[in-house]
Amino acid sequence: MTTSRAALRSQVAELLDREGPLPIVQVGDPVLRHPAVPYDGQLDDDQLRALIEAMRVTMHAAPGVGLAAPQVGLGLALAVVEDAWPVDPEVAVARERTPVAFRALVNPRYLPVGDERAFFYEGCLSVTGWQAVTPRWRSVHVTAQDEVGAVTEEVLHGWPARIVQHETDHLNGRLYVDLAEMRSLVAGEHALRWADATPHRAATELGFTLP
């Protein structure tokens, strides 16, 4: 899906005119299933900063730990991430969940580091109410630009690596359900039932296999 610069600027301006968090589109919207257009300066600096701030507000309000531009209806290769929510120490250790400072990811890409994968329950703000066990690379090498165009590279592990993989996949038209073990799928109050540090009990009772 391609959008002219003028049309994109108009679309962003319309979003930014709204009060409060931006609306989050749900699975079934085609914008979630098409690769996002790389960011190459389509927005002026002020508009880009305002969009990133609006996405940050929306992510916090949801609440979530990441949000990609397609999730607010924009087919642009931009995402924001932040994980500063409190977490049980046992869960933090099992999931290698460490704080992630707020940052914008422009045109992010990742490659696996090693061949180890981690299997944990995962959800998505665009697939409201559902979670499923999703394999992710335990460690990834991430390349991206920040909001001023500076290139950043780093190796992430554990939960931070999962967050970046999830958001970067959004920019490639891919949702976590494309990778998930569908026998693990849970909804609503059942998500709390399986909110263990690891999904091993869910695997036994729901009948799916973990490596």
Question: How does this structure look, described?
Answer:
The protein has 211 residues and is α+β, with helices and mostly antiparallel strands. It has one domain: Peptide deformylase (Peptide Deformylase, Alpha-Beta Complex), CATH 3.90.45. Helix content is 28%, strand content 27%. The chain is built from 6 helices and 8 strands. The strands form 2 sheets. Strands 1-2-3-6-7 form a 5-stranded antiparallel beta sheet, with helices on both faces. Strands 4-5-8 form a 3-stranded antiparallel beta sheet. The radius of gyration is 17 Å and the shape is globular.
What is the strand and helix layout of this fold?
Layout lengths: L4 H12 L28 H17 L4 E3 L9 E6 L5 H7 L4 E13 L4 E7 L6 E8 L1 E7 L5 E7 H13 L10 E7 L2 H4 L6 H7 L5
Antiparallel strand pairs: 1-2, 2-3, 3-6, 4-5, 5-8, 6-7
Helix pairs in contact: 1-2
Main attributes of the structure:
single chain, 5-stranded antiparallel sheet, Peptide_deformylase, 27% strand, Peptide deformylase, globular, iron, 6 helices, 211 residues, 3-stranded antiparallel sheet, Peptide_deformylase_sf, Peptide Deformylase, alpha+beta
